[in-house]
Amino acid sequence: MNHPPVAIVHYHLRRGGVTRVIETASACLTKAGIPHVILCGSPPDKKGKLPIKVVEDLGYDDERSGNTSGIKIVHALRAAVRESFGSGKVIWHLHNHSIGKNRALPDAAGILAESGDAMILQYHDFAEDGRPGAYPKLADSESLYPFAPQIIHTFINSRDRQFLINAGLPASHGFLHPNAITPPAKVKVLPRRPDHPLVLYPVRGIRRKNLGELFLLAALAPKGTRFAVSLKPDNKRWIPVHDEWTAFASDTELPVMLDAVGRVSPAPGAPKTFASWVRHATHFISTAVAEGFGLGFLEPATIGKPLFGRNLPMVTDDFAAEGIHPGRLYDRLLVPESWVGLETLRQSLIRSMRATLESYGHPMSNQHLESSFVAMRHHGYLDFGNLPEDLQRQVIHRLLVGNEDDQILAQSGDSTQCLVEWLAESLAITQPGVRSDQLGPYSTKAYAERLKELYARASGATPETPGHLLKHKVLGEFLKPGSFHFLRT
Fold it and tell me: What superkingdom does the record give (predicted)?
């Protein structure tokens, strides 16, 4: 089906998940012969063949000189599109317009929505979801979430889609559009398997990646096992948290290497590159307490590496619906309540929850406090992954000075097992839990077909004047009583 050209809009094309998604989409559109342009706030990190035009007003508020406005951005976007395609209709494809990085972009989205042009709003993250510092910028916006038949909302997991539907988005306007898995270059197999496991966590060590859990696992893993995190955060907000774990690694001498890529070698004489770390890793791990799509759960299978770690139903439920179970995953790591102290936990909860809710303009109610406190307790145990970092370190110190290794349990579904045993069994696995041929729903071919369907649906709809979701209803979905998590603030 013929439709107008596509204008993809994002703040930047720096290295990261959204940039990879845009690069994949551009390759799909090029292959399909669909004219498109990528509009971003600054030149990309690396030169390439992408059809890019820089619109400086799209940059982050704290990185851009001068003020902007919604109408100014719209004029700049339309001018860039005319330069690319001449006059005529266009499909606007906006990524993450509502996360608070550019206060004027939601206003621009609202103006474009009123124009009746076809539009795709693609969500990777939400300011309402663990971004209390960003949301106040958007608190006065009335056009965060416009909806109409010609405006298609796409989500990378079903939970986010359901949240917006619960907040009033017509179900026929919201579609699941998961990211594509693009296998990396083939990994050359080592001549012989290492004597001891090397577990790689290929992420930036930001707070929600739950670095403390690596140290807990390292304290209980078979002797000789090493753990490594690829990179340090690039957002200055998370540097102090990362620095505390770096100091902890030095103090405890636990075998956890942070910011490993480019700094240390995975083996004597081996390069320090990411490719070298991937090659030498025997296992991959994920301990994150929140993800958008969960690429890290599926990508190890494309290079023949087993995965273990923390289950995240918000993303793994979608994989399970496709018959995919990405690895050996626990739902919780259970620590005796007495190791932390309920009053200590309660006071930490009060301080952290009050600050978070007030950042969102919500006073802390007794219902929020009591619901979250109850949700954190599991028949005499607490989930290590939902403890603040100081209490995580307290637990690990107790492990290191005592003889209580058997007190930490891994819970999967209704079953529990001593974590020491669970971990040894997981490290003994040498093959991925997913076959590459199971990843068809996440192939670039499947991604391209979905993309074409979404564009056809948006451009083929009869335009209507948009309505707007009520902000407080969207926010309420993400701040439900009982849902508070220390590491998502």
Answer: Bacteria
CATH code where residue 41 lies? 3.40.50.2000
- Is residue 249 very low, low, confident or very high in pLDDT (cuts 50, 70, 90)? very high
Q: Which of 374, 377, 348 is nearest to 487 (CA)?
A: 348
- Domain residues for 72? 6-180+443-476
Please report which confidence band the pLDDT of residue 152 belongs to, taking 50, 70 and 90 as the band edges.
very high
Residue 186 domain flag: no
The Cα-based distances of 73 to 93, 111, 481 in angstroms read: 15, 10, 37
The CA distances from residue 132 to 126, 189, 203, 308, in Å, are: 10, 44, 22, 30
Residue 486 forms part of a structural domain? no
Contacts of 462 (CB under 8 A, 6+ apart): 149, 150
Same domain (yes/no): 450, 395: no
Higher pLDDT, 226 or 402: 226
- Per-residue confidence (pLDDT) for residue 297, from 0 to 100: 94
For residue 118, pLDDT beyond 70? yes
Torsion over CA of 207, 211, 216 and 219, rounded to 10 degrees? Answer: -150
Residues contacting residue 318 through CB under 8 Å, at least 6 positions apart: 157, 158, 176, 178
Which segments within 168-316 are labelled E, that is strand?
Answer: 174-176, 198-204, 226-231, 256-257, 283-286, 307-310
* pLDDT exceeds cutoff 90 at 193: no
Please spell the DSSP secondary structure of 456-476, one letter per residue: HHHHHSPP---EE--HHHHHH
User: Average model confidence (pLDDT) for the chain?
Assistant: 93
> Is residue 190 situated within a structural domain?
no
For the chain, the domain total comes to 2
pLDDT at 220: 97
In a domain, 1, yes or no: no
Q: Where does the pLDDT of residue 236 fall: very low under 50, low under 70, confident under 90, or very high at 90 and above?
A: confident
Q: Report the distance separating Cα 129 and Cα 215, nearest Å.
A: 26
Cβ 148 vs Cβ 113: under 8 Å? yes
Element (H, E) at 20: helix 17-32
Cα 414-417-422 angle, rounded to 5 deg: 120
Please name the helix (run of DSSP H) or strand (run of DSSP E) that holds residue 27, with its range, or none: helix 17-32
> Helix or strand or coil: residue 330?
strand
129 and 51 together in one domain: yes
Model pLDDT, residue 177? 96
Is the overall model pTM greater than 0.85, yes or no? yes
Nearest 10 degrees: CA dihedral of 471, 475, 481, 487?
A: -160
Per DSSP, helices labelled H in 303-443 are 313-321, 342-359, 366-376, 389-401, 419-427
Is the per-residue pLDDT at 402 higher than 90?
no
Torsion of CA 206, 207, 211, 212, to 10 degrees: 160
Q: Which residues contact 312 (CB under 8 A, 6 or more apart)?
A: 286, 288, 289, 290, 291, 294, 297
